[in-house]
């Protein structure tokens, strides 16, 4: 798997991923689509076997995982040139990292020709990366492994990190296209393009929520456009989307073959029509969760008066300690997590602290309330969350 890591601005990462995570294999069935979708795509009722094992070969070689193509290569006379990501520095643009690697397998006695490579130029504020993938089955044994017996894709990603006193972001342009042949269904081709700019800024401690429920200290601006076009047998389709961020919530328009369609239908088509290529080209969707905790400590004390923990979703917990009422309010969705803590001493006005965290943000904030209490709010990305 080839992963472009964005460790901080994952709101943008999750949005961008929808188009970059393409070309992993074809699986199109009219029975899985609505009537409108099936009409747009035709009736491709015979799925092509996914090339997951084929396109993940570089990762398998790195981790020592066996696969059908890896075993075939091991058992035959194949010349190899392999340079793994840890042997060279990654390309960096702001919080985005792209690992470089080279895997070339060929030779007169080799049953396959295989090449997967990501190279690029590091620039002061970003990078230009080129990636290539080429596969051809040379023997009957190799052709029996996958329905796809030949495919070739090339692409380029340009990225520039954006910086500001209160945040940052990314500006990028992406293009990836290629062709191949299915032994059962014939030749295919596809084109994927994406351009955009997303900036995220965060302020200090928050007051109440806005009318939309969004925290005041998180702002997202910019947008992106993407295009996915494919031609397969007698079928073809062109999928476009345009997304604009204003404040926080994105506004998007989706079309298939020039006709506006609902988001769910667009994503159904996009997620099923995936021609083979280099595998999962994404922006850091690793398996993890955000574990969050809030504590209230009285001045002069080292042990918190009260604390509460959350592993996502919605949680509200009230406590009364020594006549002080405390309310812990966790509000989490796929885009951000907010934590609000109210501290209300008996007979006095309440103090309130509220902080927001992005989905993959590890951070700690400390707020002073009423001159007597300290609220410490922490979130961290963990493999498993313990409530």
Question: Which helices and strands appear, and what pairs or packs with what?
Answer:
Blueprint lengths: L1 E2 L1 E2 L3 H11 L14 H7 L10 H4 L1 H7 L4 H7 L4 E5 L7 E3 L2 E3 L2 E6 L5 E11 L3 E12 L2 H4 L4 E17 L2 E16 L3 E17 L15 E15 L2 E13 L2 E7 L2 E2 L2 H10 L8 E2 L6 E10 L7 E5 L3 E8 L2 E9 L4 E9 L5 E7 L5 E7 L3 E10 L5
Parallel strand pairs: 1-16
Antiparallel strand pairs: 2-5, 3-6, 4-5, 6-7, 7-8, 8-9, 9-10, 10-11, 11-12, 12-13, 13-14, 14-15, 17-18, 17-24, 19-20, 20-21, 21-22, 23-24
How much strand? over 45%
Number of discrete helical segments = 7
Number of strands: 24
Query: Quick check: average pLDDT?
Result: 75
Label the structural class.
mainly beta
Strand order of the largest sheet: 3-6-7-8-9-10-11-12-13-14-15
Properties at a glance:
disordered N terminus; 13% helix; mainly beta; 387 residues
Q: Care to describe what's here?
A:
Helix content is 13%, strand content 51%. The two termini are 31 Å apart. It contains seven helices and 24 strands. The strands form five sheets. An eleven-stranded antiparallel beta sheet has the order 3-6-7-8-9-10-11-12-13-14-15. A four-stranded antiparallel beta sheet has the order 18-17-24-23, with no helix packed on it. It has a four-stranded antiparallel beta sheet with strand order 19-20-21-22, with no helix packed on it.
